[in-house]
């Protein structure tokens, strides 16, 4: 009988130990997958959670585990930016207007929680890297070349387990001042905190690039309009232009919006009450086409086409990522899920011009 009692007590202790281990698992393993806003709120749960979330090592791990796009920064010309979260309860930043920066800025690019901004008030057009979730920021040194007023900018940042201090690059494509119809590239590297002009020059007359950069496998893509795309690989230091595939019922001058959908380059267009998504293949290969230094452009093949029906007409697609497609009807923004094809209203945009930029955002605690 004594043995029976001891066995029962042992089982009770075992169950209690399992319960305690589950709490440890949630604290040590599950919290790192949550966005920054939720983590700031969960600091009030208990002292252990507060210490865990406040540690630099936790912020380093969270920047690697929480990499999903959870919203977009929307900005009209001459106005401060505005964050449009996909879920306002879990995602957010303390200062969505980025007023913690020393001057008004325009958000030019983003990558895994970091934003690349350019000053909109001063004549120098300084570059800034910031994390809106932590209000940390850094002003970049002045570039070597004059990028002009129509610079295309891309921020490249991939969180690494081995690099406690984040390493990132800023790639600028600008019209050459020395070669007619030439496009040059200058790259900032955070490792040595300096700019370097790339050896690559694309000899092709390009339209001013105003679209947001889309990075897939460290290759940068900018939409040039009229179905053309500029692609640049900073590792191989190679660039080229190609045509987007066109869907049935579209003219050759119809623009398609580029996006990163589950690690692949995609093109999105809308027609009537339908949204068409094409995932493209062979976006950047090791071999350049024969007319690489000429005026031709390579045509890209469609991998597959999906038709997502939206219940409203006259919509305008403004952003696409792995989570879904953001479209605008009037001043109302909505999210179309690529998983279950449901729609969700996000926000009503009041005021501002019709020309707005949309930059993806990851709610990360990464430190600069």
UniProtKB/TrEMBL annotation:
NCBIfam families hit by this protein: F_box_assoc_1 (TIGR01640)
InterPro entries noted in UniProt: F-box-assoc_dom_typ1, F-box-assoc_interact_dom, F-box-like_dom_sf, SCF_F-box_component
Protein name in UniProt: OLC1v1010825C1
SUPFAM superfamilies named among the record's database cross-references: F-box domain
Residue stretches making up the F-box associated beta-propeller type domain: 110-368
């Amino acid at each position: 009988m004594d043995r029976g009692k001891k066995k029962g007590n042992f089982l009770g202790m075992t169950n209690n130990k399992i319960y305690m281990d589950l709490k440890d698992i949630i604290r040590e393993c599950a919290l790192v997958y949550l966005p920054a806003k939720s983590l700031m709120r969960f600091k009030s749960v208990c002292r252990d959670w507060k210490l865990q979330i406040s540690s630099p090592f936790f912020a380093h791990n969270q920047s690697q585990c929480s990499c999903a796009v959870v919203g977009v920064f929307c900005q009209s010309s001459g106005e401060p930016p505005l964050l449009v979260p996909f879920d306002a309860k879990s995602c957010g930043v303390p200062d969505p207007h980025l007023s913690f920066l020393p001057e008004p800025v325009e958000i030019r690019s983003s990558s895994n929680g970091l934003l690349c901004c350019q000053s909109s008030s001063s004549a120098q057009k300084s570059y800034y890297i910031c994390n809106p979730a932590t209000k940390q920021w850094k002003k970049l040194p002045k570039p070597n070349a004059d990028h002009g007023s129509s610079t295309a900018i891309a921020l490249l940042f991939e969180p690494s387990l081995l690099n406690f201090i984040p390493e990132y690059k800023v790639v600028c494509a600008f019209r050459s001042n020395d070669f007619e119809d030439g496009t040059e590239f200058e790259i900032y590297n955070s490792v040595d905190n300096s700019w370097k002009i790339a050896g690559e020059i694309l000899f092709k007359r390009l339209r001013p690039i105003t679209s947001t950069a889309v990075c897939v496998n460290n290759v940068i893509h900018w939409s040039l309009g009229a179905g053309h795309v500029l692609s640049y690989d900073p590792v191989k230091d190679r660039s080229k232009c190609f045509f987007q595939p066109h869907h049935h019922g579209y003219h050759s001058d119809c623009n398609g919006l580029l996006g990163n959908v589950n690690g692949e380059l995609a093109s999105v267009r809308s027609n009537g009450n339908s949204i068409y998504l094409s995932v493209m293949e062979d976006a950047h290969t090791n071999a350049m086409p024969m007319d690489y230094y000429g005026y031709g452009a390579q045509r890209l093949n469609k991998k597959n086409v999906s038709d997502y029906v939206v219940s409203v007409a006259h919509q305008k697609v403004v952003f696409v990522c792995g989570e879904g497609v953001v479209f605008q009807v009037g001043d109302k923004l909505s999210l179309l899920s690529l998983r279950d094809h449901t729609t969700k209203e996000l926000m009503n945009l009041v005021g501002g011009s019709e020309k707005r930029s949309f930059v993806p955002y990851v709610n990360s605690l990464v430190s600069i």
